[in-house]
Amino acid sequence: xxxxxxxxxxxxxxRYTGPRxxxxxxxxxxxxxxxxxxFGLGRSAKAKIFPWLVVGIVVIVAAGLTAVRTxxxxxxxxxxxxxxxxSWLVIFFVAVVGPELVSxxxxxxxxxxxxxxxxxxxxxxxxxLGALGTALWMLLGAPQLVMFLGAxxxxxxxxxxxxxxxxxxxxxxxYAALWAVVFASVGLLxxxxxxxxxxxxxxxxxxxxxTAPIVGILSIMPSRTVNELAMLGSPTSLIHAVGQYTLGDLxxxxxxxxxxxxxxxxxYVAVAVMLVAxxxxxxxxxxxxxxxx
Length: 293
Description:
globular, mainly alpha
């Protein structure tokens, strides 16, 4: 019987003996990485162009509104109305950032690495969803803070004026959170369906923009009930309707709310909740199927 000729060489590898941080820290790291990715941080200069261009636009608009209010004393746009006015930018932001967060991982085939212990499949989707939602909230909320600071430092009624301004700001931030939650849920679900970023971006834009004509058609139907429910036809108009019902004059001054949605405010709120819940459930199901392949 020949003598064995193989030799085991010790090349210096050592076992890891440090702390194992576990699921919570993995989730946090993935969330933070997704948030940085949304703004191109830690990536090439090319990846930073679009997100920071959008940030620059919304901040410049907020600064302009603040300057006009400082000079004239007139409120050109409330905090909630600012979120509405910037919604078209949010659509394109989601169309670019959503595929960056999930489509790249689908295309490169790195999901089995993410789904190894201790990260469950659902945590990946929720971390990405949280990162996109936070990025959108910051995109709409940070300019509102600029507007608030400008108003607070120029108020003529002292602390009373600052307090009143704060009471106007908080609903605006909550309304921005509504935009962020709905857009992130719908956008990330669409992006998770394909590894091709161009297709994902096109699908996101199509869902948010091509549904708008449905609202227009329903709003001119002869039935008043159909007219008042027309804003269910698009995610963007759905958010606006919920804002009208919950914020009232802060978003739709002059009694416009009843003229547009009638007494169907609770219906719009319920549909918005079901839309977000349904998108999150489908997103979790999507990644359960991806991991099972």
